[in-house]
Design a protein that fits this description.
Elements lengths: L21 H14 L6 H8 L3 H8 L5 H18 L10 H17 L8 H14 L4 H27 L8 H12 L1 H12 L4 H4 L2 H21 L1 H4 L8 H9 L3 H23 L2 H7 L4 H27 L22
Helix pairs in contact: 1-3, 1-4, 3-4, 3-16, 4-6, 5-6, 5-7, 7-8, 7-9, 8-11, 9-16, 11-14, 11-16, 13-14, 15-16
Length: about 325
C-alpha cells in the first residue's frame, strides 16, 4: 500500500506560484550545506536532491528576494536533515536527544556556536544570525521562543517512542502541542513575517490572526501525518494524527487517512474564511494604512506557505519508501550532531 500518496489533495483558493530565483538559491543551498559539513559526499547530495527542498521554499515564498529565498531554503534543509538524525536508536533516548538540543538553544540566547561546533550547531548559528539580523527585539524574542520550542519537542518525541505501549496514545491536545513544536512551523511563519514586514502587536495578537496562524501551521502539519506515516510508524512515533484517530475510532488506516485529510481541509477552509474579516478588524483596531498593508501581506504569505507545502508534499519522494532514510542511519549522515 502506498500510504499517503493516494486520495484527494487539499484544495485551497489561489494558485501555486514559484519563485523565479529558485535555481540560484538552490545552488547557494548546496554550497551552504557543504560549507557547514551537512552534506559530506556525492551519495548524500543525491539523496538530498531527491527531496526537492528548493521547490518547497520557492513555492512557499514566491516573492522573496534572493537573499531571503536562500535563507528559506537553508532553513527548510536544516529542519529535514536535523529531524532525520533521530530516526534510529538515538531517537529512542530522550535524555541524549535533550543533551544534543541544549547547545542549539544556547545559541539562540548567546548568538554564538560552541568553540568547536558540530555541523548542526555551525549551520544553525548561521541561520539564526542571518534570520534575526535587523529584526526588532519583539520579533527576535518571539522567534527565539519558537525555535526553543522546536528543539525542545525532539526529546519529548523520543520519550513518546521510548515509553509507548499498545494501549497508550497521546491525547489530541497533547498531540497538537508537540506537533506544533516538532514541525517547526512557527519558525516558518516567523520567516514569512521577516520577509513581508513585521505586524503591529495589536493585530498580531488579535484572536483572528492568532487563529489564522494556528490554522496555517496545523493544516500542513496534520496533513503531513498521512504522508509521513510510513516513515514514522516503524520507528515507534505515536505523535501522528493518523495513528491516534485509527486507535480512537477503531477504523482502518485508509479511513484514518480520510479523517486526517478532512480535518486538514477544514483548517484550510477556516483560514480563508477568517482572512476575509481581516480588513474590517484592521479598521476597528485603528491601524494605519501601512500597518494594515503589513497584515494583508502576512495573511497572503501564510496562504502562499500552505499552497507551497501542500504542493510539495504531494510530489516529493521524501516520504516514499525510496526517499526515506533507513532506520539505521547511513554513514553519510553520521557525526552531524
Amino acid at each position: 500500500m502506498n500510504a499517503g500518496y493516494a486520495g484527494d489533495a487539499i484544495s485551497i483558493p489561489g494558485r501555486v506560484r514559484v519563485n523565479p530565483l529558485r535555481d540560484a538559491a538552490a545552488a547557494h543551498n548546496l554550497d551552504w550545506l557543504r560549507a557547514h559539513g551537512m552534506l559530506r559526499d556525492a551519495k548524500a547530495q543525491r539523496h538530498y536532491d531527491h527531496w526537492a527542498i528548493p521547490d518547497l521554499a520557492a513555492a512557499s515564498f514566491p516573492d522573496a528576494g534572493l537573499a531571503d529565498l536562500c535563507l528559506a531554503i537553508d532553513q527548510c534543509a536544516f529542519y529535514f536533515l536535523f529531524d532525520d538524525q533521530f530516526d534510529g536508536e538515538l531517537g529512542l533516548n530522550p535524555a541524549e536527544v535533550a543533551r544534543i538540543c541544549a547547545p542549539l538553544i544556547t545559541i539562540l540566547h548567546t548568538g554564538r556556536p560552541p568553540e568547536t561546533p558540530s555541523p548542526v550547531e555551525s549551520a544553525f548559528a548561521d541561520l539564526w544570525r542571518r534570520g534575526s539580523q535587523g529584526m526588532s527585539p519583539r520579533w527576535r524574542a518571539r522567534a527565539a521562543y519558537h525555535w526553543e520550542g522546536y528543539f525542545s519537542a525532539h526529546p519529548s518525541e523520543a520519550l513518546g517512542r521510548a515509553t509507548h505501549h499498545a494501549e497508550d496514545y497521546p491525547s489530541r491536545a497533547a498531540y497538537l502541542v508537540l506537533r506544533r513544536g516538532a514541525s517547526g512551523v512557527d519558525t516558518v511563519l516567523d520567516l514569512a513575517e521577516r520577509f513581508l514586514g513585521e505586524v503591529a502587536a495589536a493585530a498580531f495578537h488579535n484572536p483572528q490572526l492568532t487563529l489564522m496562524r494556528q490554522l496555517a501551521g496545523d493544516a500542513p502539519a496534520v496533513n503531513n501525518d498521512v504522508y509521513s506515516y510510513p516513515k514514522e510508524v516503524p520507528r515507534g512515533d505515536v505523535y501522528n494524527l493518523s495513528v491516534i484517530l485509527q486507535h480512537e475510532h477503531q477504523c482502518s488506516l485508509e479511513e484514518a487517512f480520510g479523517l486526517v485529510r478532512a480535518e486538514a481541509q477544514w483548517m484550510a477552509d477556516e483560514f480563508f474564511r477568517l482572512a476575509e474579516e481581516l480588513p474590517g478588524i484592521c479598521v476597528a483596531l485603528g491601524l494605519t494604512a501601512e500597518e494594515s498593508a503589513a497584515v494583508a501581506r502576512y495573511a497572503d504569505g501564510m496562504g502562499d506557505w500552505m499552497r507551497g507545502y501542500f504542493s510539495w508534499e504531494a510530489s516529493t519522494i521524501r516520504y516514499r519508501p525510496e526517499g526515506a532514510l533507513p532506520i539505521n542511519r547511513p554513514n553519510y549522515l553520521e557525526e552531524l550532531l
